[in-house]
From TrEMBL:
<dbReference type="InterPro" id="IPR036412">
    <property type="entry name" value="HAD-like_sf"/>
</dbReference>
<dbReference type="GO" id="GO:0000287">
    <property type="term" value="F:magnesium ion binding"/>
</dbReference>
<dbReference type="GO" id="GO:0036424">
    <property type="term" value="F:L-phosphoserine phosphatase activity"/>
</dbReference>
<dbReference type="GO" id="GO:0005737">
    <property type="term" value="C:cytoplasm"/>
</dbReference>
<dbReference type="GO" id="GO:0006564">
    <property type="term" value="P:L-serine biosynthetic process"/>
</dbReference>
<dbReference type="InterPro" id="IPR050582">
    <property type="entry name" value="HAD-like_SerB"/>
</dbReference>
<dbReference type="GO" id="GO:0043716">
    <property type="term" value="F:2-hydroxy-3-keto-5-methylthiopentenyl-1-phosphate phosphatase activity"/>
</dbReference>
<keyword id="KW-0378">Hydrolase</keyword>
<dbReference type="InterPro" id="IPR006385">
    <property type="entry name" value="HAD_hydro_SerB1"/>
</dbReference>
<dbReference type="InterPro" id="IPR023214">
    <property type="entry name" value="HAD_sf"/>
</dbReference>
<dbReference type="Pfam" id="PF12710">
    <property type="entry name" value="HAD"/>
</dbReference>
<protein>
    <submittedName>
        <fullName>2-hydroxy-3-keto-5-methylthiopentenyl-1-phosphate phosphatase</fullName>
        <ecNumber>3.1.3.87</ecNumber>
    </submittedName>
</protein>
Length: 201
């Protein structure tokens, strides 16, 4: 019996020419000056917090600063506009051709990224990924406003591999192709039968 074939694609820098769709989205929401000032604020927070055991990481602080108390419906609408106006233009033609090849072969295509579900969900549907593994924004169930936190850990590095293994437990049952471009993809690339690093240019 032939093994199932899975093709796992990182998003930022692999499928796209941008290394951080998260920063692009924050810029889209509030403008570049606000993102820059927030980045500086988060850096200062991080430096001042070096001696605090309970400190947030700088990116958690930045996310909280910009996202907290934003309405879910409004944020979803802005994410769709961001997808149409910005993100689609960042996709690599060669990467989409590779995705299409795997899909034509009947392979299970997985989008796996540290980027946010709010814009990756509609993108994954548009490009017919069978599975999306990513970082999920948290919303208050009563007010439907962003808490400024994530529902899960950022899907980066070893965490990316762990999330993948939760869905595909039995390694002997499948053959894995993995595509990535950064240190955050190394664990998954090392786990794959066929690893492709920075192959789309």
């Amino acid at each position: 019996m032939d093994k199932k074939v899975i093709a796992a694609f990182d998003f930022d820098g692999t499928l796209t020419t941008s290394t951080s769709s998260r920063i692009l989205f924050l810029k889209y929401l509030v403008g570049l000056p606000k993102v820059v000032s927030s980045l500086l604020s988060s850096f200062v927070y991080s430096e001042l917090g070096r001696f605090k055991l309970d400190r947030l990481s700088w990116h958690d602080y930045l996310d909280n600063l910009i996202l907290k108390d934003r309405d879910k419906k409004e944020l979803n609408e802005q994410a769709m506009q961001f997808l149409e106006q910005v993100l689609i233009k960042k996709l690599r033609k060669e990467a989409l051709e590779c995705l299409n090849f795997h899909q034509q072969q009947g392979h299970t295509c997985v989008l796996i990224s540290g980027a946010w579900d709010i814009y990756l969900k509609p993108l994954a549907r548009r490009y017919h990924f069978k599975q999306l593994i990513c970082t999920e924004l948290e919303f208050d169930p009563v007010s439907h406003k962003s808490t400024g936190r994530m529902r899960n850990k950022y899907c980066l590095g070893q965490q990316k591999l762990e999330e993948f293994k939760k869905l595909y437990e039995h390694r002997e049952d499948y053959e894995l192709y993995a595509y990535g471009d950064s240190a955050n993809d190394i664990a998954l690339l090392n786990y794959a039968d066929h690893a492709f690093y920075k192959c789309f240019k």
